[in-house]
Each structure stands twice: as structure tokens, then as C-alpha cells.
Design brief:
The chain is mainly alpha-helical. The chain is 66% helix and 0% strand. The chain is built from six helices and no strands. Helix 2 packs across helix 3 and helix 5 packs across helix 6.
């Protein structure tokens, strides 16, 4: 009987670590509505008006910026970083054109490029 409880405890422990590693939502993709709501929530601390927030979300979700990137995964790290900087500058220009100040546009870009949890992502080499 003790062996059964020990085995169940081990299985439960392994299962819990797997579930906890997936994070909120169980690793499922967010719907576009959920993603937009999350973006708006992340922009709240910047003190944007509702119109500015909507403009910022529209710019940040516009896929045309990424359309001309080519095959992003096959790029060398330096090339990828340069291309991402180019995309960030194009987004910043579009945010300024939408009515945000240069400083606010920069803050929006920085806020939206940070990954949840404070990290910037990356491999575990």
C-alpha cells in the first residue's frame, strides 16, 4: 500500500511540474480579442487616452511590418536584430503619425516588445 502511495505521489509531482511549466491558459493560443485586451492592459501604465491606446494597438498588431521580413528563423542573429530594429523604427514613425509624441511612441514600443514575466525570451543554452 505504501508503494502505491509513493508511486502516486511521484506521478502527481511530475504532473504538477509539467502543468506549472505551461503557464496560464495551459499553453493554448490566445484569441485575437484576448491578445488585444492584454495589449491594452499593458499600455495602461503609460497613461494613454483611449484613442491613443487603440491607435497603438492597431499599429502593433499590423502584420504588414512583418510581411517583408522574409524567413525570420533562417536569418543570422545580427541580421535578425537589425531587421527587428528596422521594424521598431517603422512602427515608431507610424505611432508618431497617429498622434503620439516621440517619447510616448518609444515607450509603447519598449512596453510591447517586453515579454510577460519581465524577460526578453531567448534560448536556454
Amino acid at each position: 500500500m505504501k508503494k502505491l502511495f509513493v508511486c502516486m505521489a511521484i506521478v502527481l509531482g511530475c504532473s504538477l511540474t509539467t502543468v506549472m511549466a505551461q503557464g496560464p491558459g495551459g499553453g493554448q493560443q490566445m484569441t485575437p480579442e484576448e491578445r488585444i485586451a492584454m495589449m491594452k492592459e499593458r499600455l495602461k501604465p503609460l497613461g494613454l487616452t483611449e484613442v491613443q491606446t487603440d491607435s497603438a494597438v492597431a499599429v502593433m498588431t499590423d502584420r504588414s511590418f512583418m510581411a517583408n521580413m522574409g524567413n525570420f528563423r533562417e536569418m543570422a542573429p545580427e541580421e535578425r536584430q537589425a531587421k527587428m530594429k528596422e521594424v521598431a523604427e517603422a512602427r515608431k514613425k507610424r505611432l508618431v503619425k497617429a498622434g503620439l509624441s516621440e517619447e510616448l511612441a518609444t515607450k509603447v514600443i519598449e512596453t510591447m516588445s517586453m515579454r510577460p514575466g519581465g524577460g526578453r525570451g531567448g534560448g536556454g543554452k
